[in-house]
Amino acid sequence: MTSRIAFQGEPGAYSHEACQAARPYMEAMPCESFDEVIAAVRSGKADQAMLPIENTTYGRVADIHRLLPESGLHILDEAFVRVRISLMGLAGGKLEDINIVRAHPVLLPQSASFLKLHGIRGISAADSAGAAAKLAKTKTPGEGVLASALAAEIYGLDLLAEDVEDHGHNTTRFVIMGREPNLERRGEHGMITTFVFEVRNIPAALYKAMGGFATNGVNMTKLESYMVDGSFNATRFYADIEGHPDDRGVQLALEELAYFTSTLEILGVYPRDPARD
Length: 277
Description:
- By secondary structure, the protein is of the alpha/beta class.
- The chain has 9 helices and 15 strands.
- The chain has 3 domains: 4-83 and 170-178, D-Maltodextrin-Binding Protein, domain 2; 86-161, D-Maltodextrin-Binding Protein, domain 2 (3-Layer(aba) Sandwich), CATH 3.40.190.10; 191-271, 2-Layer Sandwich (Alpha-Beta Plaits), CATH 3.30.70.260.
- One of its GO terms (biological process) is L-phenylalanine biosynthetic process.
- It is an enzyme of class 4 (lyase).
């Protein structure tokens, strides 16, 4: 049987593009929401999940840090996708024919200079790939869509301009999740351990908890806080560190962290992607 990897969005979404790049041997399975992606893997309808976790321009993906600890899934890999924005239109059309473009609200400001230069008005759409699918059906003259080149290919639209984003650094980091963890691998470029924790209600708990990573030479590449259960007092932290829990330094640092925390859960231990560099 063909294995499946679930993603949120319509076919042609950037998450779909990430699936093709990181898991070309798996069938990409579109879902309406992140919750559906997770449910598909937990139920066995899909084998893995492709979930965007952060973007270099817009930071953390909304709600994803809340969902991961409750998902019951484990991070198996990470994948980085450079967000390349293409302007597409009806077959045989030209750039000068386009008066308006539809796109997800995140893409419009990223292409503001290009749109202004060509006198094109941007209109928000719930989903860029979905907007491409709709244009292919309605065949509305003078309309275009900002989306991935993959979307144009899927829906039979012509690429009228490529790489229209204002900045060339926009990249989304995805995590690939599955039902069972894999702690046996050792990546060629090192390992990443991701975990969430809540500190105990004692003075300087976070400061003391972080001390173990410094004294044991463990590099923490990410630390983010967010509220849980609508409380201003219950703060959860999401962290990425370099290394494997079996490494002596990481082992000692996590032991010290556990002393100052009320909860500590490892979400994944996986190879470090060289795209981090």
